[in-house]
Amino acid sequence: MIVAAAVIGISASSCRSAHWAVDPSAVFFPLKPHMMWTYRVESKSQRANYIVTDMVMGPQYVPALKISGAVVQEFYNFDRAGLRPIIYLEKDGYLTRLSGLDYVQQQIKGPAWGRSIEERFLPQHLTPDRSWDNKLFPYGQLPGSFDIAQKHKSFGEPEEVAVPAGHFRGCIRIETQAHYEGGAYAQQKMNLSLAYADWYAPNVGLIKTIAYQGNSDGPEMERVELIRFETSTKAAKSEPQGMPHRTS
Questions:
Q1: Which domains, ranges and CATH numbers included, belong to the chain?
Q2: For residues 234 and 236, what is the distance between their CA atoms, to the nearest angstrom?
Q3: Is the CB of residue 148 less than 8 Å from the CB of residue 138?
Q4: CB atoms within 10 A of CB 50
Q5: Which of 134, 144, 162, 212 has the fewest beta carbons closer than 10 A?
Q6: Which is higher by pLDDT, 66 or 236?
Q7: Residue 241, CA distances (Å) to 75, 76, 77, 209 in order
Q8: Which has more confidence, 3 or 195?
Q9: pTM of the model
Q10: pLDDT tens, 143-186?
Q11: CA-wise closest residue to 192 among 204, 202, 200, 180
Q12: CA geometry: angle 167, 133, 96, nearest 5 deg
């Protein structure tokens, strides 16, 4: 849910720029150590509401995976969810996201069934009017597993975006069409598509996501909104209650 740059406080002035234009010097997916985001998730598909907190731990080498990347700890506040690591890697001008990982004795380990891999998750330098596509492998590239083919388009958001954490201007909106394919979806001839709208605020990161069934005209399936953001300086002084701290 989240390259380093100067970060400013969260407020209406956080995203202010002339004529609400997108600031070309802004970073829309900052990964500075100790930055922290807290999101409220309202999921109609899961019939559940919950809180997710992400904190950047910084660049690390992960011996079990033999890779180096920016590690983010993600904490869910419901039973049997707990703390999970996410790793972001830089490759060919894009970020690759690895998830579905675990901590074993404070070390990051890959699961036996295959980790989630999403190459070209996001351009390292996000700007409006960009188009790209990629594939997400939720359970790794294992035989018989399915993947999600995605097409993305970025736009400069002309409107102010309001979420519980504040009001933001100069944001970038990404519209994504996702189609599930392969594996059980191909075998049973199931047709599942979702559409996403994501809003990124300059020097803050992701502030809002809405997922729709089918396409953007379909029913809303999930809504994610930022309720709290802390810069690296503030977050380093205090961690959210209930979020354990681990290092690899």
A1: 12-233 (2.40.360)
A2: 5
A3: yes
A4: 14
A5: 144
A6: 66
A7: 11, 12, 10, 24
A8: 195
A9: 0.83
A10: 778 889 999 999 999 999 999 999 999 999 999 999 999 877 87
A11: 180
A12: 75
